[in-house]
User: What shape does this take?
Amino acid sequence: MAGPSLPLKDHWQEQRLFLSRIIAAGVVIVLLTSLLVLRLVQLQIFDYQRFSDLSQGNRFRIEPLPPNRGLIYDRNGIVIAENQPSWELVAIGEEIDNLQETLTALEKLGLTDPSEHNSLRDLIRSHRGFERVKLSNLTEEQAATFAVRRHRFPGIDIQEALVRYYPFGEASAHAVGYVGSISAADLDRIDRSEYAASSQIGKAGIERAYEATLHGRVGYRQQVVNAQGRVLFDPTVHSHADNIANFIDGLESKAPVPGDNIVLSLDMRLQLAAQEALKDLRGAAVAIDPRSGDVLALVSTPSFDPNRFAAGLSRADYNALTIDVDKPLLNRALAGVYPPGSTVKPFIGLTALEHESIDPHKQVYCPGEWHLPGQTHKYREGRGGVHGPVDLHEAIVRSCDVYFYQLAVAIGIDDIASGLKAFGFGATTGLDIEGEKAGIVPSPEWKKRRFSRREDQVWFPGETVNTGVGQGYMLVTPLQLAHAEATLAARGEGHPPRLLIGVEDGVTRQVKYLDPAFLPKVEHQQEHWDFVRDAMVGVTSELHGTARDPMKGINYKVAGKTGTAQVFTVAQDEKYREADVDERLRDHGLFVAYAPAEAPRIALAIIVENGGGGARAAAPVARKIFDAYFAAEGYVAREP
Amino acid sequence: MSLASLEWGRATGAGRRRPFGGIVVDVPLLVLLCLTAGVGFVVLYSALGADMGLLIRQGMRFLLGLGAFFVLSQLPPRYLRIFTPWVFFLGLGLLLVVMVEGEIGKGAQRWLDLGVVRFQPSEIMKLAAPMMVAWFMHERRLPPTFLQTVAMVLIVCVPAGLIAEQPDLGTALLVIAAGGLTILLAGISVWIMLAAVVAAVSAAPVLWHFMHDYQRARVFVFLNPESDPLGTGYNTIQAKIAIGSGGLFGKGWMNGTQAHLEFLPERSTDFIFAVMGEEFGLLGLLLLVVLYLAIVGRGLYIASQAQDTFTRLLAGALSLTFFFYVFVNAGMVSGLLPIVGVPLPLVSAGGTSMVTLLAGFGMLASIHGHRKLMAP
Assistant: This one.
């Protein structure tokens, strides 16, 4: 007998339980199905007219709206990059009858580039039929040409667009960069829906580095268009009273959010002065405020017109720029590496003082050449001549190579290298735009890393001698030189150089300025800083100072140093004579300086490729930048 | 001929009469399935842009599924029950294999390559999970005790968790639905159900935490599709336009502008319900809904006539799961539910689920065809 506690199955009761569950499930199914049917009735009966209008008689289109790109200002609020209205030719693929014929006809009118026939065709085919595809930028004239023939081109339209414009053209190209058409490579690193309406993206310089800040956010509007793609109803253009359609309730729009504006550290007056001074030369100029690391000017010549990139550069024009022997696309200020020549002497002098390698007041006789004890190889005075007896001060003022050959040997290469690295040589400075080169500070350790063959890794005493005058393996960028000079001017309190100093909110117009960053302090005794500064002031003011002439008539003190970098090695028994040497093998001229010497507010580095000596080629450029800066600052320069 | 004799599947005792020489054929089910698939082919031909080649491939899949249907129809439910643990643990093992391979391959891994054919082990679980729950309760008393309920929940959640890990949240959801419906039919108490609902609601934030970004985006856009008309909301908006513009009678076969001008995405797979709505209107959709309801009704009838716990639970669960598929897909396309990748059964293009589905109906046919006469 089965007691009530035994787990015997009660089939009858179980079936009843199951049936009740099945019935409950049936009720739920009926309820859910009713809900679904009611939804379908709502969509297909009550909202039928609206959806039908949206889909059938007219096409319903969501048009993305491009945000206005943020503007770029210099430190005084002068506009360096802005947006100008222009015309764009666009295609709507599904409304074009014959794509090949249409493109050919447009080419005949000069509205599209025949060399891009195939890529435009593929571009149109790769988009959804109803999407607007940009074909080219039009001038006012071209837009008029098309407007009168529009009826012959179903599916082709013109629309207004904003195109980036750089009022300073060449002068701002290397610092600010430029925008260009969005390429396939760009598409991989952006949110495509954010760029649905944008046709341009930052390609270089500030425009690339701060793309996310400048771009803004896409908006959209829903439009009603007819079978030819013409807009029949657009809520942002037409009013409800236009009586074009009775289904406007469903149309929505969202305004794009403009990008933020950017304030740069550049001072366009200096930038223009530097560009003008370097015009027709190959070279670079970088000016930095030693108090903050603000880059006041950053120029590289020859330059190019960034507006051509913004307007859409043809492949042929781009290729012409890339194969130009003068390399206009190369940003010499950050990516050009040069031997620093004698511009390293103040830094090496400072290192010598720190290590007490010599008595700075003891005179050494300069006979015009020198050789290592026990060797015959002659190290000559770079610019020729015989200096006679010179001490450290005199050696910097007159740029005596013989003195520094011996000084370098006395300090030793390891201390020279660490002394130079402390000022940022041999490493990128961390400027906020891409493309910076690190340069080289040579040392035995560096040579071991650089060369793989044992015999190449040996450090020769002669290489220490060369490093003492900034020749040999050592390479620097103009930006590094200016940065090191700024740190020297600030007595070791360095700041990483920067271009961005503020961001202005695109909507609220509130500007947020950024505080300068700090680098670890370079420690030296006060009298050593003074010693080097006084010697550098001597360069521009004393009787034998190498940069005395270019700085004549200045009523404030400039601490400077000239430099000459050899491109061409003269044979042991010959003299370097400029007239004999091919123009491209002539020496590079360099000049570094800061001013006013007692309370420095600007430090700069100039390089002029194949310009001959630093005093003749580079120092005059510095003078023009100083004049532009101090004229504005209230220092009035007297003309000599 | 009497009405009763039309019911071929009905058992008539020891000398049971079968019209196909002992072969079990559930004619009402077969007819309904073929009718629905037939409607599907018509819509699919249009949705595929009149591509006969692709349609023939879909037809081949349907025939393969019918093969599974017939084979399983002949297998007495007794054997189904005996094989159940084997199938379940085989499926579980394959899921683990796929997971380990996925770890090695560093990426989503759903497919198992057997050299000749590739298939998704997660498909097996759509059937094996409800079968295992039914097997578990077969010898036990209904309704289940609390501990038994916990055991059943584990049977469902372990494979579902492995599938969700792949990550294939859509299929995991379907496995949970199939298993969960079996547990409900087993008669767990109303209180446990209520507790489960409360637990689910409170677990939502935790679930939210573990969701992928794209899944969160879907929830956001479900709540407000117009917030992202260029991105994720595009599908919903275009599907609503397609259905709504179909009206009562539809635009006519091959005349749907939303579908044929490529406004509507995934029109041959997840969004084919919208193509049907655009071209055949409300009447067409109602016909389809009636066909689906008839299939579900036949399934529930079979469940109600089943004679033991295993077959009863399995038949009921398979029928309710089928309805779940239909409702989730139709609800998603018409904007009632968020977008989850669930195809419309028997109509959407695409292979593996068609075979699994028809195999399940084969079991239903078998359950009905192998009943024994019992004294009332």
